[in-house]
């Protein structure tokens, strides 16, 4: 009995550590400088995070907050790798000796690039689709985007507006109402918004106390390890808290 | 009848969806719809003025009904215009994403530009150019949008933003040369890409050429 309890305790400790790592992004380096093992660990964690991020962004109907820190460290590391490859291939002797290693590094590089590209493009796809909605002054919405993405929204909106103006909108100068592109009356919604009621597949990472209300009639209990199909809006806050993940 | 022209435009837009390249821009139709909107709007204002200062929509049912219909027609026309232009703009954006060169697309079109503006909705049939049906403003939009994209790509130079969206399998691939593409420098030396020859090269080195249709990736 006693050993069982201790095992459970240790498991808990490890779980906690893991979770700490996942949520305290970036901080560990400052506290544990230099150790190559933590650096390795971080790299693995970053990779796992990237895969998560890529899956989440592709399945989530809304735009998720941009993970600037992860993206920066990844692009830095990509550059390091490219430099490493260049250095190694520049020296014919080293190149012939470590050909296989280089091939592996390069394959890995292409894979990471693919994931980052997938992530960025998935975001851009949604950003492009909902650019009107994203050009609001609502800071909550805006701060989900990176600086480059915000600039993209503004610039693409200007371009399209200019095309409309040139072709027909400028003819209605006397009636600003007709010129408007963001009418949001209940009869006619001109601004496309992410559909938060869209259903998605999720996996529960942590038991969630109480029941989650889906609609007037239904509510559901979310148990750890189970997979559910639910409207995004009902589990949005658990996604943000990391208690539930996209599948 | 009001809305007929807009209907025609909507039908044209629907046809666009199934076509490979954009058909000729409907200059005349768009202009007529713009005119119709202005007429409707003028009628609306006249009618509203006629009602005098103490107009109450609830008491003057007849007038408010007429006003409502006029307004609906204006809205519908506007929506058709927006939909038509947005749809075309989307197709133009796709080309920009696919990496069609802004400069060359513009040049191609300047040749058929005269025919385009004079014949208007008549179209420039027989031209194989992708941009033949574009309105000059759409050419400009294409260039503008390409600039926006170029800036975005500059932000992500490390990952080749417009690269392939399939997961990478092999570093090296077999390609066949479809069009002469000159010499390219790779880290394994110079390769000269002459038509119908076949090479085993690094995918990353030739990605752009595959997209532009110079090379064919063999599976």
From TrEMBL, chain A:
It comes from the Eukaryota. It is found in: Nucleus. Residues 87-153 form the GINS subunit domain. The keyword Transcription does not apply. The keyword Nucleus applies. CDD domains: GINS_A_Sld5, GINS_B_Sld5. Keywords: DNA replication, Nucleus. Residues 194-246 form the DNA replication complex GINS protein SLD5 C-terminal domain. The GINS complex plays an essential role in the initiation of DNA replication. Belongs to the GINS4/SLD5 family. This is DNA replication complex GINS protein SLD5. It comes from Myxozyma melibiosi.
TrEMBL record, chain B:
It comes from the Eukaryota. Pfam families: PSF1_C (PF24997), Sld5 (PF05916). The keyword Nucleus applies. Keywords: DNA replication, Nucleus. Its main location: nucleus. Residues 170-217 form the DNA replication complex GINS protein PSF1 C-terminal domain. Residues 104-130 are annotated as: Disordered. Residues 64-156 form the GINS subunit domain. It is found in: Nucleus. The keyword Nucleus applies. Residues 104-119 have a biased composition (Low complexity). PANTHER family: DNA REPLICATION COMPLEX GINS PROTEIN PSF1 (PTHR12914:SF2), PARTNER OF SLD5 (PTHR12914). Required for correct functioning of the GINS complex, a complex that plays an essential role in the initiation of DNA replication, and progression of DNA replication forks. GINS complex seems to bind preferentially to single-stranded DNA. Belongs to the GINS1/PSF1 family. Component of the GINS complex. This is DNA replication complex GINS protein PSF1.
């Amino acid at each position: 009995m006693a050993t069982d309890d201790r095992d459970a305790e240790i498991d808990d400790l490890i779980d906690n550590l893991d979770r700490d790592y996942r949520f305290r992004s970036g901080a560990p380096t400052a506290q544990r400088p230099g150790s190559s093992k933590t650096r390795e660990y971080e790299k693995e964690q970053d990779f796992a995070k990237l895969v998560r991020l890529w899956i989440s962004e592709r399945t989530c109907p809304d735009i998720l907050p941009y993970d600037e820190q992860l993206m920066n460290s990844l692009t830095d590391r990509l550059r390091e790798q490219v430099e490493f490859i260049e250095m190694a291939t520049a020296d014919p002797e080293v190149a012939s000796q470590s050909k296989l290693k280089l091939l592996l590094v390069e394959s890995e590089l292409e894979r990471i690039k693919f994931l980052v590209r997938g992530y960025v493009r998935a975001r851009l796809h949604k950003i492009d689709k909902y650019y009107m909605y994203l050009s609001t002054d609502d800071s909550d919405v805006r701060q989900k985007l990176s600086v480059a993405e915000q600039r993209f929204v503004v610039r693409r909106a200007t371009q399209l507006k200019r095309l409309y103006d040139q072709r027909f909108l400028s003819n209605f100068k006397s009636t600003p109402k007709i010129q408007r592109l963001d009418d949001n009356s209940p009869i006619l919604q001109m601004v496309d918004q992410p559909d938060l009621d869209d259903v998605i597949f999720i996996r529960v990472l942590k038991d969630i106390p109480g029941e989650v209300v889906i609609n007037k009639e239904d509510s559901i209990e979310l148990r750890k390890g189970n997979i559910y199909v639910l409207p995004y809006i009902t589990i949005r806050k658990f996604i943000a808290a990391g208690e539930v993940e996209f599948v | 009848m009001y809305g007929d022209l807009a209907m025609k435009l909507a039908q044209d837009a629907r046809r666009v969806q199934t076509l490979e390249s954009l058909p000729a821009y409907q200059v005349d139709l768009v202009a007529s719809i713009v005119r119709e909107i202005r007429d409707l709007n003028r009628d609306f204002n006249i009618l509203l003025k006629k009602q005098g200062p103490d107009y109450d929509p609830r008491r003057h049912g007849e007038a408010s009904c007429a006003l409502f219909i006029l307004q609906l027609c204006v809205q519908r026309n506007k929506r058709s215009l927006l939909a038509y232009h947005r749809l075309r703009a989307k197709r133009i954006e796709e080309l920009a994403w696919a990496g069609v060169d802004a400069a060359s697309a513009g040049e191609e079109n300047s040749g058929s530009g005269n025919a385009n503006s004079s014949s208007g909705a008549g179209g420039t049939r027989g031209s194989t150019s992708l941009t033949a049906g574009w309105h000059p403003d759409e050419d400009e939009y294409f260039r503008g949008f390409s600039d926006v994209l170029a800036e975005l790509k500059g932000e992500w130079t490390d990952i080749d933003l417009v690269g392939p969206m399939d997961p990478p399998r092999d570093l090296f691939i077999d390609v066949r040369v479809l069009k002469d593409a000159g010499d390219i420098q790779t880290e394994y030396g110079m390769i000269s890409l002459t038509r119908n020859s076949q090479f085993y090269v690094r995918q990353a080195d030739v990605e752009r050429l595959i997209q532009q249709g110079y090379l064919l990736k063999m599976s």
